[in-house]
Amino acid sequence: MSGGIDYGNLMHRAMRGLIQNVLTGVMRDGLPGEHHFFITFDTQHPDVELADWLSDRYPGEMTVVMQHWYDELDAGDDGFAVTLNFGDAPERLYIPYDSIKTFVDPSVEFGLRFETHEDEDDDDEDDDEPTPPEGSPDSGDGRKPGKRDAEVVRLDSFRK
Fold it and tell me: Per DSSP, which regions of the chain are E strands?
């Protein structure tokens, strides 16, 4: 597609900018009201930083919950760092924005899902309709293993 407008990448950049703005506000002012986030990211992304035991346990993707307990949130231009509690073991994570697969705030029924188009031999996709990430609202460590790639950005898929 020579000379065409790459709307997909433009949308992804805008949506990642939205996440950066939200996390920068939370870094400055804390989480307002009942807001909390389920953030699913690709643990194999080259710039993700997490403990070896977490990457071993979640070799494809991981969902973290930011709600009641999180510490040292630092939202930068390319990603964010945060300390979360995993079974009474605080762990520091660095999550690049371009590793994020879903960002959900269930308190206001808002969600973003990022599409990936693999050029590799990944023909065994079984992702007809991925569900939003799950996790305990009172824990700081909701996680979901596995891998899924989506093909269409559906902002309404997280609404009731």
Answer: 37-42, 61-66, 70-75, 79-85, 90-96, 100-105, 110-113
How many angstroms separate the first and last alpha carbons of the chain? Answer: 37
Contact, 142 vs 87, CB < 8 A? no
Q: pLDDT digits over 25-74, tens only? A: 999 999 998 999 999 999 999 999 999 999 999 999 999 999 988 999 99
> What average pLDDT score do residues 95-119 get?
86
Token digits for 1? 């597609």
- Are 57 and 112 in contact, with CB atoms under 8 Å apart? no
pTM assigned to the model: 0.70
Residue 38 contacts residue 121 (beta carbons within 8 Å):
no
Q: What is the H or E stretch that residue 8 is in?
A: helix 7-29
pLDDT at residue number 121: 42
Answer for the pair 74, 102: CB distance below 8 angstroms, yes or no.
no
